[in-house]
Amino acid sequence: MTSRFNHKQVGGSHYEKLAIQPIVFAMGNGLGPCETNIVKYITRDKGENVNDLRKARQYAQFLLEFESNPAGMVRYTDYAVANDLDYARGKAIEYVVKWAQKGDAAALSKLLEVIDVIVEREVGLKREIHDGDRQTGV
Length: 138
Fold this sequence. Notes:
Elements: H1 22-28, H2 33-45, H3 50-68, H4 76-82, H5 87-102, H6 105-136
């Protein structure tokens, strides 16, 4: 079985060689974020990076801790303010929550748009910094 997402990998090639990507497996089996990360890190390691196994263990520990002491719901606005997120990143969090809680497909489209805006802004800032370094000889 070939994953239709292999061509979408950003920042490496560690999933491109897999017949089934961890995200496809996790979503198909209804796994939550901690379980998804455990699958991801166990699949990715294969003896090359012990830190990936440590990350998998950390997520398993999160599951155990959450089981005995569940966290209460945090509003996305409170999350954005507490973590000093700018407006665009706060909107991105809002759209994720709207999708997760209400199945609002329009929120996913808006999320993609907002992420594109954030990426373009970050790329522009890095370009400005790089150009400034070149002009000053740094």
